[in-house]
TrEMBL record:
InterPro entries: Hcp1-lik_sf (IPR036624), HSI-I_assembly_Hcp1 (IPR053165), T6SS_Hcp (IPR008514). The lineage of its organism: Bacteria, Pseudomonadati, Pseudomonadota, Alphaproteobacteria, Acetobacterales. This is Protein hcp1.
Length: 159
């Protein structure tokens, strides 16, 4: 499995045909949760809060995309869109099975990490106003069927 990221002002080192010049991602994390309150003895009458969506965090090697990402972090200027593709290898090459698209993205954190024998990495956290998650699971016959959910953090609307 490989993970690739496209950030508007940064050119990465990826050479895979469908993701040329994208940024290789080593790790990606984000979550959604909600608080649910349940009165004792009334389990069927639960109340929940709005969905909480965390910032999305990626870890990558320090590479030629690092400088423009650092500039974007210092300036705090929103990027219109950041796309992250999760791929797997099958008989036809790399296939995308999940795409996460973020809109109005601001880098909220950039952490550099280096160890004596290891290649240095950096971890970036992205704050955003809208997230789209497209999944393309493989069906029994080998075909895929894509499904997308979009969450707008400014309105709490799900589409």
């Amino acid at each position: 499995m490989a993970i690739y990221m496209k950030f508007p002002s940064a050119t990465g080192n990826v050479t895979e045909q469908a993701h040329t010049d994208w940024i290789e991602v080593l790790d990606s994390q984000w979550s959604t949760s909600r608080s649910i309150r349940s009165a004792v003895g009334v389990g069927s009458n639960r109340e929940s809060s709005s969905a909480y969506v965390s910032e999305l965090t990626v870890t990558k090697y320090i590479d030629n995309a690092s400088h423009p990402l650092t500039v974007a972090a210092f300036k705090g200027m929103p990027a219109a869109e950041v796309q992250i593709d999760f791929t797997r290898t099958d008989h036809s090459g790399e296939t995308i099975f999940r795409t996460i698209t973020l809109e109005e993205v601001i880098i909220s954190s950039l952490v550099n990490s280096g160890h004596n024998q290891d290649r240095p990495t950096e971890t970036l956290s992205f704050n955003f106003s809208k997230i789209s998650v497209m999944d393309a699971p493989e069906l029994k016959d080998g075909s895929t069927s894509s499904q997308t959910v979009i969450f707008d953090l400014t309105t709490s609307n799900v589409a």
